[in-house]
Fold:
Amino acid sequence: MRSEEEVSRALNAHANTVRRICFMHLNSRSDVEDVFQEVFLKYAIRDAAFESHDHERAWLLRVSINACKDMQKSFWRRRVSSLEDADAWHLSIADENRLVLDAVLRLVPPKYRDVIYLH
Structure:
């Protein structure tokens, strides 16, 4: 496991590059932050020494790209819609259905609302 100083040095040197690479692949700030944390966690755990600063940078970039590809292939990303899509769907339903949906969304406590909405 790497020391805290090594991880801090790598973060200072490569954080912007890793974030830019991830954002180019994912286009989502929250996904970028998830992958960013995953990449630097892998870096912190990895014990093998790098030959040079360029080798370290290349390793971080390759791990970042692979983590982005894994995120894009994940079940969660393929099966879940964004909240923007849900809002668009909500606006497109008929007026009589909108009244029912609004009543369901007002149910308290939320556990009942979630069950009825999902059904």
Notes: The radius of gyration is 21 Å. The mean pLDDT is 83.
